[in-house]
Specification:
single chain; mainly alpha; two-stranded antiparallel ribbon
Length: about 160
């Protein structure tokens, strides 16, 4: 990483970029912890690595060629496309049921969190992780309540 005119010293810049990677990995791990607690396929390590990878590719796209600014949307599009294949591997169809959609969506969102962190948009990355955790925790609770209610109704209707 070369120092460009008007930029921070190389050491400070390197620390900033490493900080972005660490933030991405930590946020990904936080989301992964929720998945791990619920015994889902993609846990702490997987989600941390997904966010870290997206962040690393984002940082590299910005820093690879000093003085040349490319189209940042191209790297984002590549990350989204690539991560779609990873997420697709988490989806399983058995009989009439499909499993792994939430895990696949979590993988996809985690790539976005990593992309935001890698781009230096730390507040956006933190907000994305926070909203993701809210969705996973709160909506899981809501789904469980609905399932219990339906189960009770079915038991009551069969018992009559």
């Amino acid at each position: 990483m070369c120092q460009r005119p008007g930029e921070k010293s190389t050491d400070l810049r390197t620390l900033e970029l490493v900080g972005r990677l660490l933030v991405a990995a930590l946020l990904g791990a936080a989301v992964g912890l929720e998945r791990e607690v619920h015994h889902k396929a993609a846990g702490v390590r997987t989600n941390a690595l997904i966010a870290l990878g997206a962040s690393l590719f984002t940082v590299l796209s910005q820093e690879m060629v000093p003085g040349v600014q490319g189209d940042p949307s191209r790297i984002a599009a590549g990350i989204v496309t690539g991560i779609g294949f990873v997420g697709g591997g988490a989806i399983l169809r058995t009989g009439g049921s499909i499993q792994g959609l939430t895990t696949a969506a979590t993988i996809w969102v985690n790539a976005g969190i990593g992309l935001a962190a890698g781009a230096g948009e730390i507040p956006l990355a933190v907000a994305g992780a926070g909203v993701t955790l809210l969705v996973l925790v709160v909506l899981n609770f809501v789904e469980l309540r609905i399932e219990r209610r339906e189960k009770r109704r079915n038991e009551e209707s069969q018992g009559r």
